Amino acid sequence: MSDEVREKIVFDYTMEALLRVLGQPLLPEHITGLVATGVNPRQLEPAYPVDVYSQVLDFIMGQLWPELPPEEASFELGQAFMAAYRQTLMGKAVFAMTRVIGPHRALERMSRNFRSANNYTETRLHPVGPSSYELWFNHAPHTGFFRGLLTEALEKTGTQGLSVTLVSRGEGGEATFLLTWSEG
Known about the structure:
This protein is an alpha+beta fold. The chain folds into two domains: 9-76, no CATH class; 89-182, H-NOX domain, CATH 3.90.1520. The chain has seven helices and six strands. The protein has helices at 12-20, 28-37, 50-64, 70-85, 89-108, 110-115, 143-155, and strands at 9-11, 47-49, 123-129, 132-137, 160-169, 175-182. The strands form two sheets. The chain has a four-stranded antiparallel beta sheet with strand order 3-4-6-5, covered by helices on one side. It has a two-stranded antiparallel sheet with strand order 1-2. The termini are far apart.
């Protein structure tokens, strides 16, 4: 079945990590807001449509970083999400591996790592230098979120002098990022 036909879904442990960003226990206004997006934080479904996940991203940004421009709030959320994801069972496994294999091989495994979070993410990696890559995503509409999670993830592999820059964004949600760091 093609990605155009199959519904894009995000798995429950990804949603769980995202909700952890709000803090525990959740405040009553957070529970009410999440239920309005279609998520009952007290009983997570096995998977959620990507549109619901996107609404939850927007809700959390509005709750935690209302004073920031959307792109900056999205970046902060991406970093906070990745820190929370590292605490999940799946996140612990992914990060244990990435620490061992380092940034180059971690980037080569990016599609596989994202497929542990959802059923639709595809990436293409293009080396542009010894420690510089272009990374394309087929679906990254919250580009600040992706910059934040890539920054947080790669910093945890021991990279120094990391820069994650949006290079291009397509109308269909695809995006390309330039990732560079110092070898050391």
